[in-house]
Design brief:
There is one protein chain. With about 350 residues, the chain is an alpha/beta fold. The protein is built from 8 helices and 18 strands. The longest helix has 25 residues. The radius of gyration is 21 Å and the shape is globular. The relative contact order is 0.17.
């Protein structure tokens, strides 16, 4: 069995994992290996929207967003119980031609490769010896490390070290269509989430999210949503994934870190996780480089407080009478305020 040793070992080549690697490299650490269980380009269940802030963060790390064919869709509509309540002029939310994240993640992967980040694909963790700082891979290799970073999502290998917490479920299907370019967000489809129908240059992406409840039949909910919209498509490619609600442990064993979804770095209300994933990778890299775990613990604690507040807002927002007030009173009499909140609070111009 082949044995290797790296200063920093990163599990997962998604946004948070590659952000960690690229930021470590900027800070002078080059003895890095990123392990990815799939081969790029690989699919990720995500509608792929990015905010202006996220766009700038990717560009800061060397990714030319224009290569991913991202642009604004100005026609942004909000529905409640399938009735149009408001049209917002979208200023800062971008999407690409596939309306999903495959191309974005692939271009970020190529950016990392061009910067000489060492990425091992098609490799899964078989065993982890926490005491010996040692991983055994499906490629019949044993790898030792000084620092280990789990960037493998909500249910990855690293999740065994985290407590089971509430999570959101997301499901989506993408297909060719002749619909007009638009982003349609639907409330009232799921109990504590939203649905969407996004159309861009001949591609349609339909999806739903909800605070996961094992009693719900989400396949049936999805089919009913399509039926109500009179949309017909093949559901054989229907995909689903989970995102965390609330932060998790950021560090264990003094040298094992969690970033992105693995650390719960995802907004529980909007399910926005890309910017948090990229940022968590940056802060984690600083903590490792300076050998100061307090740097990362402080960041996770700030996120924890923020997400506790957001989770309270989420619970209030999805109360039926609050939804009624927002969409039947707020959208009617305070539409400009709602547009401003969307573009400056949820999406952000900076």
């Amino acid at each position: 069995m082949q044995k290797n040793k790296y200063h920093v070992l990163i599990i997962g080549a998604g946004p948070s994992g590659l952000s960690t690697a690229l930021n470590l490299q900027k800070l002078g650490i080059k003895d890095i290996l990123v392990i990815e269980q799939y081969k790029f380009p690989r699919y990720k269940c995500c509608a792929g929207y990015i905010t202006n802030k996220t766009k700038k963060y990717y560009e800061k790390l060397g990714l030319d967003i224009s290569k991913c064919h991202y642009s604004l869709i100005e026609d942004f509509k909000i529905y409640y119980n399938l009735k149009l309540k408001q049209t917002i002029i979208n200023k800062f939310l971008y999407t690409n031609k596939q309306i999903e994240r495959t191309e974005l993640d692939y271009e970020f992967y190529k950016t990392a490769i061009s910067n000489n980040i060492n990425i091992k694909e098609n490799a899964k963790i078989i065993k982890h010896n926490l005491r010996e700082n040692e991983l055994t891979l499906s490629t019949n290799e044993t790898i030792n490390y000084d620092y280990l970073v789990f960037a493998d999502g909500t249910l990855g290998f690293g999740s065994q070290y985290q407590k089971t917490s509430s999570r959101n479920i997301a499901m989506q299907v993408t297909f060719s269509s002749k619909f007009k370019n638009s982003i349609n967000i639907h409330f009232g489809i799921t109990q504590k989430g939203y649905a969407w129908v996004s159309n861009y240059n001949g591609t349609t992406n339909v999806g739903i999210t909800d605070v996961y409840n094992p009693k719900n039949n989400y396949n049936l909910i999805f089919k009913e949503f399509l039926k109500k919209l009179n949309i017909s498509c093949d559901l054989k490619d229907l995909k689903g994934s989970f995102t965390p609600i609330g932060t998790r442990k950021g560090i264990i064993n003094k040298n094992v870190y969690f970033v992105g979804d693995a650390a719960g770095a995802c907004d529980p209300l909007t399910l926005s996780g890309l910017r948090y994933g990229l940022k968590s990778g940056e802060v984690c890299a600083k903590a490792i480089t300076k050998q100061n775990n307090h740097i990362y613990k402080r960041y996770i604690n700030i996120l924890k407080i923020k997400f506790i507040i957001v989770n309270i807002i989420l619970k209030i927002f999805y109360l039926k009478f609050i939804l009624f007030l927002i969409f039947n009173v707020g959208c009617r009499f305070f539409s400009k305020i709602i547009s401003y909140i969307f573009n400056h609070f949820f999406v952000g111009k900076k």
